[in-house]
Amino acid sequence: MLWWAMCAFATLVLVVVTALWVHAMRRERPQMDAARARQLTLRWLVGGGLLLPTLSVLLLLLFGIPIGHRMLPLPLAGEQPMRIEVVGHQWWWEVRYPDSGVVTANQLHLPVGRPVDLDVSSADVIHSFWVPRLGGKIDMIPGRDNRIRLQADQAGTFRGQCSEFCGTQHTHMILDVQAHEEEDFARWLQARSEQQVSALPGPAGDVFAARCGQCHRVAGVSEGNRAPDLSDVGARSMLGAGVLSNEPGALLRWLQEHQRLKPGNAMPLHDDLDPDHLSTIADWLETLRP
Amino acid sequence: MQPLRSPYNPIHIPLGLVLWSIWFVVLYGGLSVGCALSPPDPIQGQWTWLNGLLALFSLFTMTALLGLARRFQRAARDEREGQPARFVARLAAGVNLIGAIATVFVALPTLSLPPCL
Amino acid sequence: MTTPSNEQVAAQEQLHDQFNDVWGNPRGWKSLTIVNHTTIGIRFMLTGLGFFLFGGLLAMLVRTQLAIPGYDFLEPDVYNQVFTMHGTVMMFLFAVPMMEGLAVYLIPKMLGARDLVFPRLSALGYWCYLFGGLILCASLLLGIAPKAGWFMYTPLSSAVHTPGPNSDFWLIGITFVEISAVSAGVELVVSILRTRAEGMSLNKMPIYAWYILVMAMMIVVGFPPLILGSILLELERAVGLPFFEVARGGDPILWQHLFWLFGHPEVYIIFLPAAGIVSTLLPVFCQRPLVGYRWVVLAILTTGFISFGLWVHHMFTVGIPQLAQAFFSAASMLVAIPTGIQVFAWIATLWVGRPLYHVPMLWLVGFLVIFVCGGLTGVMLALVPFDWQVHDTHFVVAHMHYVLVGGMFFPLLAGIYYWLPHFSGRMPSVRLGKWGFWLVFIGFNLTFLIMHWTGLMGMPRRIYTYQSGLGWDLPNLISSIGSFIMAIGIATVLLDIVLHFRFGQKATNNPWNADTMEWSTHLPPSPYNFVSLAPVRTRHPLWELPDLEERIDRGEFALTVIDHGRRETLGIEPLTGKVREIIHLPGNSWWPFIASLFIAFTCLGLLSKFYWVALVASIVAVLVLLRWSWENGAHPLAAPDARVQPGEPPLHSRTCDGPGLWGMGVTLLANGALYLALLFGWFYLWTVSPNWLVPDDAVIDQRLLLASAVLLSIAVLWQRPVLRRLRQGQGEPAALITCFVGAALLGALHTGLLLWALLAGELAPRATAHDAVIVVMLVYSLAHGALATILSALQALRVHHGYVCKRTPYEPLVVEQFWQYSLAVMWITYCSVVLFPPTFGGV
User: Of A10, A20, A164, which has the smallest distance from its Cβ to C392's Cβ?
Assistant: First the structure.
């Protein structure tokens, strides 16, 4: 809303100034004595140079500062906003729900119609949290906790992206944001916190525990904490923080080609592993959903 | 070369805005130190001791700059001085006036925003 | 106008020959020794052109990669290097040096002087720029270019996340180039204040000189914070001193503050000289003086100062308290007002003048449209909630290109077309010029206008590709096509410039009927600009005295006798323009080139981590610089003989004032800005560092520090009485030598105590930011103490040789300033390190 007003005003000013310049260049020149010239120029300088910008700027600030103020996470009377923690990594999102202990990655589930306070930080370099259709952005800085308050007014899917250059794969750090109606959200949260995962049996399971589980956490199976939590990876719509769409077979493809799809990402190559094991692991991961 | 206290010394051309710059540093720095040492309760909104202190300091600076501007303006009208000297005094008056306006303009938010959020 | 007789013509030719003997530029290898501002200015501009083309090529690579979603024209790592280098090259190696080069070329001519006031410094500046730029660009050709964005945010740019030499190239290379910028800044300030034509009082100075004066002062104060930041980050990367790392007490946001403290004034440093070009050209093409001279001067001054209060608007998403952000938001909008005043002064000049349509005017109209548009989007960005949406998107990219290209590139081209006949003596083509303009104008707008929309649709900056289906495909394609059109336009302009050297019509003496003095030199100019120095008491000398060039050429005015073999120009009082001394200037010299070469070796040594090479090269560089400073004043190679014509003022080295005093003063301002940035870092970390680690006990012997400071105070006080007598024209060599040797001994003791305090203390600079900052502060004072000691010792030696005495009292007064600065810094450091911490919870 603010943008359209500013855009219209700016376009008006640009057109007027340009028109004045061109007109000044082209017009017929009446004879002018020094005194009249001085009077005219004073009018230009004060009216155009001084008053016009001053008034415009005052107007802008008068409207703009209160708008900014309303966007702040100020203390609320009554029900407190829900708290969610988001930690930026190179190049994935760690999302934690402190009240219920749910941890997930690269996706953010929100309730509709309620303010949510997101406490953001970073584990390595500076990232920036931004969901364009829900609000402004806030930087995720190591050592600091910044807070942004968002509220989804309708259910739906929104795209979030990292907005501070954070290295080679800054481009592929997409956050899948889903807003659910209250009951659906409560159901999702409960299903996630009660999720039971049984370990993968057999040699593939050993490979998983020895390799993948060192970095990735799967609730009840492994406790790695250096890579995205995979407990509900089967239910995600995207893999690799926005690189692949999670269709059947995508997980296997990711495991086999991830360095080609997202060069420089922190996961080591798996070319030394038995392809059957990889396939088994991928199938098992696809079943992980709340 | 004119003595430093003379209103015709060219050093006064930048000096007004140098004073404004120092004010700005104290404003921003003072706000940061105040918020780090003893941040006022957010419930108070903008009516805190910190806002008040910063606003008073700004008022003081603005008055000082306005006073200087007047002094230079009057010096500029002195017919006995040469053109270059009066030019300098007029510029200095303008610079100090601008400094005073800039002080008020930038300090206005102290009256409408809470300090440490 | 009488026809001169044969005798008069012969006498005139002989005069010019004599001047060419003293001022002439050598050819071949020896052209590396040229210090003349005309040549140095042209070199700056040509080199700037080279880097511009390199940066432009990088831009084309970026646009090609982004033209189609999912394109794999460039690998991500290469892409990151390319866009980082595009920004770095354009901002540091093109924008500022190009404007400085033009100023270096024009200022002495416009002011009616023969050269800038420190010619060897200009030459040093050029070589540092060339070598530093080449080193930086070489990194890309080797595939190890910086890749953390042109503003190099930490922690991404630090050793942990960029382990290779990439960031080091930026930090070391850019610092090397900044020596050039700051030295040109110092020189321009002093030249504008002290070497104008006789009678050219401050209010009669051409408006361009005001713009450059403010720009140069902004460089002097605005570049040092970045130099400090670069030094600190390089120390963190190479030696492990943590300034920006949270775990050991640092703060990555400190880098952002230091960078933007420089970064915001930088864009005004780029814009002001361009506005100066507009304010110079427009009156000529309107055939009447600029409207509102005083208003414009006030606007320039205001812009210069207020621009230092805006930097946090680049950090609105960092999480700084809203009230603080509001201060910066208000100031950011405030700066639109002086800009508006200038725009309307231009419109008013057009209104009451009689505009002529030449190619430069086209570029000026283009400037107005594009720059005003960019300024308006800038005002929008100053509003915090709007910034929270478009920060770090292509909207900002569009905004900044509008203000930079519109506000700098278009006026630059107007200026180049305008002064081309001055550089070469020939006129450019009109048709090719118009084609070039329209292609660039249309291409530019096609590229960047739609980019506002791309940014509003959410496309972030610095991504190497994007998914299809987000609505970004078509706008990016259009932008890429536009960029190719713009490139063709630039090629056309280049073609025009290159061809005109061969095919251009010969220019008349004053082809545009301009009013300022630079048009009263020959076209192209002789190395000495003016064979006689005319007094100027009006803002429009060539409009009021159209035959001025002839009269100058005939030798009618001052300083026409050159049998002493010295290069000279007049030194004036800054306010009134009254002549005070004759400033003698150095001729061609190898020292700048050699010094720059050894600084380059130092940088290469640091980059390749051969630290012994770096150490040796840096010592040699310092020795070269000291040897260079030896050839001053009464030295046989400078001005041993102080003979002047009857009625002429004395040589500056025989008085108590002179450019060196001012140069030292302005350099100390730059030095002070660096130190203040360091102090800022210290207090900042104490206040807001997230994990500030304070030691339990004192890490440094406070008594040693106090003793060291006291010794320094004594050294300064020791010199005062002798220097006071020197100012009054008294002082025998024995007394002078005793004074300087004593000062040197005290200085050496002071330095020694500092060194002892550093080494004997419990400092752990690699463990905590607290100790690291203290170490930097102490090393800073150490370096100053050592230098003061050496300088005083050298003064004693010079007294012994007879170069300094009561008749040549000048140099010790310059050195005294340095002592006083070192003293002030020492005490401030003492208070900040010893007295402050206990009040804030430390030891």
Answer: A164
